[in-house]
Write a structure and sequence with these properties.
It is a single chain. The chain has 333 residues and is α+β, with helices and mostly antiparallel strands. It contains 12 helices and 9 strands. The chain has 2 domains: 182 residues, Porin chaperone SurA, peptide-binding domain (Triger factor/SurA peptide-binding fold, Orthogonal Bundle), CATH 1.10.4030; 108 residues, Chitinase A, domain 3 (Roll). The strands form 3 sheets. A 4-stranded antiparallel sheet has the order 5-4-7-6, with helices on both faces. Helix 2 crosses helix 3 and helix 4 crosses helix 6.
Length: 333
């Protein structure tokens, strides 16, 4: 089993790999040029490295042409991000000539934080990891400085005095009210019988009985006071039979339309009639009900204010970046 510290070091190694590709790009063009920003080269290797994690995720969901489309979108976004990063660093270099700087202690603090969080405070383990990947401390410091520079430049272009009006707060609340609503839920048990399969103890005799007839007989036993969970264990043919047909708390979207309509019409403790869907018969029991609850505007107002402030800040950053793009020579290959 991988320890937490080993996991953190592995994560750090992956980050170093990404840094390595980025730093080596200025020394050697690997696999061709993806873009040029005011004479600065962005390589396909840099793009692939940034996109790797997202590409792996989408490859587990999509296939064929749809996967190709998703990968293309991810790489296009990666190129855009790398172009913006290059523009920001170039803008900072102009400001350095006017006296702007990132203090050494800021970079030192960032590196010390990495050593504490990823290496448990073991500086030698950190240095050995750098060396194993062909890094010097000076090289890693420059990478951290660039990262801090980009963050600082972005932050400098947003106002700390963003005022959000009550009208905007309410409009945001009404537009996103689903996010503040907990859907109605029922605590459900279910008996499931599939036509054409055997159920219960004596498979040979049960198989000869119509599942529709069997479902009716089970429903009659329930009406006579039989315990639902016991009958589910004996007869139900779905994966929850050993748990007495217990599906736990579910939302309406968990079930198909026919079953959901019945389940969410039952009151606490009620048992449905036999429900036929295709060649399967269902009997539902609702053990408890939780109504839909929507948080009030007062409850979520502070969260909404922070979201709107963040949106305004991002809008300001994007306007600044758009100006940098318009004034730059950018060629995407």
């Amino acid at each position: 089993m991988i320890s937490n510290r080993t996991f953190l070091i592995l994560r750090f190694l992956l980050a170093l790999l990404a840094i390595s590709v980025s730093l080596n790009a200025s020394e050697e063009v690997v696999n061709g040029i993806a873009a040029i920003v005011n004479g600065e080269v962005i390589t396909f290797s840099q793009v692939r490295e940034i996109a790797a994690t997202q590409e792996k995720s989408v490859s587990e969901v999509y296939q064929g042409e749809e996967l190709e489309k998703k990968v293309k979108e991810i790489r296009q976004q990666a190129i855009k991000d790398l172009i913006d990063r290059a523009l920001i660093l170039q803008e900072f270099r102009k400001k350095e000539k006017e006296g702007a700087s990132i203090p050494d202690y800021v970079v030192d603090d960032s590196i010390q934080r990495i050593i504490r969080q990823d290496f448990g405070g073991d500086r030698m383990a950190f240095v050995r990891t750098l060396q194993a990947q062909g890094f010097t401390m000076a090289r890693f410091r420059q990478t951290e400085k660039d990262k801090i520079t980009v963050q600082a430049m972005r932050q400098s272009k947003v106002s700390d005095n963003v005022i959000v009006s009550p009208v905007k707060i309410r409009a945001y609340y009404e537009k996103n009210i689903a996010s503040y609503t907990t859907p109605e839920q029922v605590k459900l048990r279910m008996i499931v019988l599939h036509e054409g399969s055997a159920s219960g103890g004596d498979a040979s005799s049960d198989a000869a009985i119509s599942k529709k007839q069997m479902a009716s007989e089970i429903r009659a036993k329930l009406a006579g006071g039989a315990e639902f969970d016991k009958l589910a264990q004996m007869y139900s043919e779905d994966s929850t039979n050993e748990a007495g047909g217990d599906w736990g708390w579910i939302e309406r979207k968990t079930l198909n339309q026919n079953l959901a309509k019945v389940a969410f019409s039952l009151k606490k403790g009620e048992i449905s009639q036999v429900i036929a869907v295709d060649n399967t018969y269902y009997i539902l029991m609702v053990e408890d009900v939780k109504p839909s609850i929507t948080k009030s505007l007062k409850e979520v107002q502070e969260e909404i204010v922070q979201n709107l402030i963040q949106q305004e800040k991002l809008k300001g950053q994007e306007q600044w970046l758009q100006t940098l793009r318009q004034n730059a020579y950018i060629k995407i290959m």
